[in-house]
Design a protein that fits this description.
heterodimer; A: alpha/beta; TIM Barrel; eight-stranded parallel β-barrel; 10 helices; B: about 280 residues; 8 strands; about 15% strand
């Protein structure tokens, strides 16, 4: 398993569950000095950071790109895969495809979180889920063509009314023709929705393609009540060999949050 | 300890059609029911109270406020509207025969300002509560303010946040409601959160992390109950769990799926809460 931390480069955002903020070079230098293996990037667009520049930075600091987020499509353009307007859905797919291709040049998958949208009040849930399936299939084909996975993130009930648990997300993916799509196991969302985190990780291991590392209160791992020993045991038992990436509030500050993350990873998660 | 069941599992507004449930709850060993007070009149609540008396159930209520009756609005008129609304809730609770007026009525439900709570807001809330605390006392009910998780309010998310307002209010009839679902999300350590609440805790909601059957999920039941015993709490444990039976209400509180069969929630959940409470008494 490899450990990474999130970096938010979306200029208009000033708070959210990201460890590093606004300065990519400083983030890379700090992450590397701690011993993190990579960074997960949230950018405004697929070309905000030129690929050659990013490659130089990553190489210099011996980091990998763990994943790229697609949420800017929602934040800046109001796009989602479940917009009732077919043209808008097509634009959402195009935006995500851009991100998939940006990530793929570094071997990193794109993550679909807020871009999944939701069922509007009075909307038809079945129809909305059908749109989600079409969107994941279309984006999943692009990912497969480029040799990467695509990560679908079930969110907690307060952030999405679509699919809240690993079980529901995996069952849904089984109905889609999207073999490149995996689920994201976000430990903060799972703290609310799952009856047991280790059981959910074991039961859905074959679908899980990425792990978001956060404590019960979304502070850095180790600053809440989540039992990381049991989580590490489950991940090692199922042979999970992907990223464990900190998507948590930069509490008390980014540098301390990143160190806390890595200490908890080394102590409880990493292979012995 | 007294074991209660919140009727929100079935509906956001209890009517006579739900009365048969009261008898089933009593038979299953519940001491009381809790209902939401949002609409209806004194006559309506009086009838429901009489139905509870018939089977021997005590009662409590939960209520919420909105932007037009927000106790922490900078607009004095809106804070006065909060006092008026709470007076109406006290009247309805009294008609029902409730001894606990509980819920997140410290601030407008799901209303955010894009920042944390301010000292002014805490003071306004304390002032509104003090304004109605004596009337509630005279009507035989305690006010218990409920900290909610971050997605549902910002004035109070933790025991410490609740204490800040309750200490400012400084009225013996105003305390807090400790809800295990919200605390599971917000607190690092359930036992420490209970101890911090201390004597301010006047009501407890037993609610699982996913709002399903108590005992089926991640809530730290033993640690929570041990701490409650330790602070000398010996009062209501009310199960609050949700289902999709009342679609509109379910959507309003972010319930998109069923967690456990409703009958398991109250029957097995009730047995679990009672057993866990007794086994943690030392």
């Amino acid at each position: 398993m490899r450990c990474s931390a999130t970096v938010c480069l979306v200029g208009s955002l000033s708070s959210g569950p990201w460890i590093y903020w606004h300065d990519l070079e400083a983030a890379c230098a700090d992450a590397s000095s701690i011993g993190l293996d990579g960074i997960e990037l949230f950018t405004e667009s697929a070309d905000q950071v030129p690929a050659d520049e990013l490659r130089t930075l990553l190489d210099r600091h011996q980091l990998e790109l763990a994943a790229v987020g697609t949420g800017a499509g929602k934040v800046f353009h109001g796009l989602s895969l479940t917009d009732p307007d077919a043209d808008r859905r097509a634009q959402a797919v195009e935006f995500i495809r851009g991100m998939i291709s940006f990530g793929a040049s570094f071997g990193a998958p794109a993550i679909i979180g807020s871009m999944q949208g939701g069922v509007p009040r009075g909307g038809d849930r079945e129809e909305v889920l059908a749109w989600l399936g079409e969107g994941l299939e279309a984006c999943g084909r692009t990912a497969a063509d480029l040799g990467v996975t695509l990560i679908y993130e079930p969110l907690n009930r307060y952030e999405s009314n679509l699919l809240n648990t690993q079980a529901d997300a995996c069952a849904f993916l089984e109905t889609c023709a999207a073999p490149a799509v995996r689920t994201l196991a976000d430990l903060f969302h799972m703290n609310i929705e799952e009856v047991s985190l280790p059981d959910a990780l074991r039961d859905h291991a074959s679908h899980i393609g990425h792990v978001h590392f956060a404590d019960s209160n979304r502070r850095p791992p180790g600053d809440g009540h989540t039992n990381f020993g049991a989580i590490g045991e489950a991940l090692r038992e199922v042979g999970y060999d992907g990223w464990v990436s900190a998507e948590a509030f930069p509490w008390p500050d980014p540098a301390a949050a990143a160190r806390r993350t890595y200490e908890t990873f080394r102590e409880w998660i990493a292979e012995r | 300890m007294k074991l209660g069941m919140n009727m929100l599992l079935w509906t956001g507004h209890v009517t006579e059609e739900h009365v048969p449930i009261f008898g089933e709850l009593r038979e299953a060993g519940f001491d009381g029911v809790e209902i939401a007070v949002g609409e209806g009149d004194a006559d309506h609540y009086k009838k429901l109270g009489a139905a509870c008396d018939q089977v021997g159930l005590e009662r409590s209520i939960v209520t919420i406020l909105d932007v037009d009756t927000n106790p922490i609005s900078p607009d004095k008129k809106i804070r006065e509207a909060a006092v008026e609304r709470l007076r109406w809730v006290i009247e309805m609770t009294n008609a029902f025969g409730g001894t606990r007026l509980t819920g997140p009525f410290h601030s407008a439900y799901k209303t955010f300002e894009g920042r944390g709570a301010t000292d002014d807001e805490r003071r306004w809330c304390a002032d509104v509560m003090r304004e109605v605390a004596d009337e509630a006392y005279d009507a035989g009910m305690v006010l218990a303010l409920e900290p909610l998780n971050r997605f549902e309010c910002y004035l109070m998310n933790t025991s410490a946040d609740a204490r800040a307002v309750i200490d400012l209010c400084d009225h013996p009839n105003v305390g807090m409601l400790y809800d295990t679902h919200h605390m599971h999300i917000e607190e690092k350590d359930a036992a420490a959160a209970v101890k911090l609440g201390g004597s301010a805790i006047r009501h407890v909601h037993a609610s699982e992390c996913d709002r399903g059957r108590p005992g089926s999920g991640q809530v730290a039941w033993d640690a929570t109950f041990r701490a409650l015993h330790e602070i000398g709490y010996d009062d209501w444990l009310v199960i609050e769990a949700f289902s999709t039976m009342d679609k509109d209400f379910a959507a309003a509180i972010h319930i998109w799926r069923d967690f456990d069969p409703p009958e398991e929630i109250w029957r097995d959940g009730g047995a679990f809460v009672r057993q866990a409470w007794e086994s943690t008494a030392s």
